[in-house]
Design a protein that fits this description.
Arc Repressor Mutant, subunit A, single chain, about 170 residues, Rna Polymerase Sigma Factor, Chain: A, mainly alpha, 2 domains, about 70% helix, 9 helices
């Protein structure tokens, strides 16, 4: 078996079930993909893991790949997506914690601070937060307000971030 095939020949062989030819692709493009990650990540092991993920994703979708196209732009796009996902996973998430939810449960239980927060929000945001505190799901809020689910999710996330920053809460 000759491992000096060009990309097109290697892809064709892989699609024929000769998976050992994937080594041609890995050997040829690992340096490029690893270098992409290494420039953007401080931890070498993270760059290695993401490089491996790229090649796994490429291999899983090799049947869809057009062997007449260049491989490197495709791998770089996978790398960009992997990096986005990596950063999303590392990004701290904010959720409505029990302390805040308890305070928002009943308007009569609102402390002065919480009332100021709710009253300081635009009406739409205040209404969504109130519905959320009453136990409505995101989907129920979306249905009730006749808004797309993703719009409701975005508004809630932005309100949480805004409140968390303003009041330095551990949300």
């Amino acid at each position: 078996m000759s491992m000096t095939l060009n990309d097109r020949e290697a892809i064709t062989k892989i699609k024929e079930g000769k998976i050992e030819y994937f080594k041609v692709i890995v050997d040829k493009y690992t340096r490029i993909i690893f270098g992409y990650f290494r420039k953007r990540l401080s931890i070498k092991e993270d760059a290695e893991d993401l490089t491996q993920n790229c090649f796994i994703k490429f291999y899983k979708n090799i049947e869809k790949f057009n062997e007449d196209k260049e491989i490197s732009p495709y791998l770089v796009q996978i790398a960009k997506n992997e990096l986005k996902m990596f950063y999303r996973q590392k990004k701290p998430t904010l959720s409505l914690n029990e302390e805040m939810a308890g305070k928002l449960e009943n308007e009569t239980n609102f402390s002065k601070d919480y009332l100021e927060i709710i009253n300081g929000l635009p009406k739409k945001q205040a209404k969504i937060l109130k519905l959320l505190s009453e136990g409505f799901s995101y989907q129920e809020i979306a249905d009730k307000l006749d808004r797309p689910l993703n719009t409701i999710k975005t508004i809630i996330r932005r309100v949480r971030l805004k409140i968390g920053k303003q009041h330095k809460w551990e949300i």
